[in-house]
Amino acid sequence: MARKQSDYLASLLAEEEVPETKPDVPGAAPSEAVSESSDSASAPSPAPARNERLRGTTLLGRESALARVASGEVRQVTQLLLDPARVRVWKGNARSYEHLTEESCGELIDSIIAEGGQKVPAVVRRIEGDPDHDYEVIAGTRRHWSVSWLRAHSYPQMQFVAQVAQLDDEAAFRLADLENRARKDVSDLERARNYAQALRDHYGSHLTRMADRLKLSKGWLSKMLKVASLPDQVLAAFASPADVQLKPAYPLAQALDDRAAAPAILREAKALARLQEERRRQGDPAITANEVIARLLAAPERTAERNGPVTYNSDFDRPAVTLQSVNRQGVTLRLHSGSGMSLEELVELARCVLVDLEIEGRGLHR
User: Fold this and answer.
1) CATH 3.90.1530.10 domain residues, the chain
2) Are 146 and 135 in contact (CB under 8 A)?
3) Which CATH architecture group holds 79-186?
4) What values do phi and psi take at 125, rounded to 5?
5) pTM above the 0.85 mark?
6) Which of 180, 165, 172, 155 is nearest to 83 (CA)?
7) What is the pairing mode between strands 79-82 and 21-23?
8) What mean pLDDT comes out for the span 36-51?
9) What is the pLDDT of residue 356?
10) In Å, how far are 30, 105, 202, 248 from 188, measured between CA atoms?
11) Burial class of residue 170, CB neighbours in 10 A (0-12, 13-18, 19+)
12) Are the CB atoms for 135 and 181 separated by under 8 Å?
């Protein structure tokens, strides 16, 4: 097609498109028509024959353009300016909305302010039966959160720019997943749990079908679903769920399948969760994800070593207290005579042993 013809057809299609953005407000005023020049009367009139020829060509072009739109060959995209309070976030999205913060969305917030508004539209779909919301976000959760935050912090007129799409839940999931794959701030754990839910909701628990639809490796998807099975008790051992990444977390999820090893891992996770909380209160650095995983994986071996009697010596290098057994019935301690320690010192040492067991999750209150 010649360049002039291509440009001409593009202009015809442009005439029929819906405006790029428009306020979603009933009774919104239409765009003002461009006023004619004051000296238009003095402008020479085009030849009548040329006018008729152009009018006929325009009508034919418009009919062709409309036919292409109706057939789906050309799609008109409507963008709306919405109040984010009237838009809810779709539950099928991997991103955890409640974990978004001013810090995690800081760059996006600064960008929206600098550009005078949101430039990249989110994808939403219309909903019915919810008196509080008109749309739900399929892709663009961070944009929704950021605009909502700006409206509550000195930018009350900020609008949420969205593109409306007609999608069923499975198509919405695939669209949201494609966007989240490019986002580094969506953790492997968030995606893994999102996949696990989608496997049940959209693919009848058929992993191969889901892998084919998402164009993913079946083996990789299987590993993601395995990581999704990590219990909340283990996740609490990490400073943040975002620290749980696929490669190091997969062996941990496998280890929990071992019935002999799982109790020790869960006890260690409980102890680590307490330490993480204590460090948060004191303002100390959190235990790193690599260290957490190393300690959890080593827990079964350490427990096996501790199952035998453990003796604590006095300052005179003599046996003072022996931890003989720890089981569901209780803790058995032996206090040795001839240790060189006073009764009060022996009792304090025994108390320290019991406290250590509590921290490890093997104490009397487990």
Assistant:
1) 79-186
2) no
3) Alpha-Beta Complex (3.90)
4) -135, 150
5) no
6) 155
7) parallel
8) 47
9) 76
10) 46, 18, 20, 11
11) middle
12) no
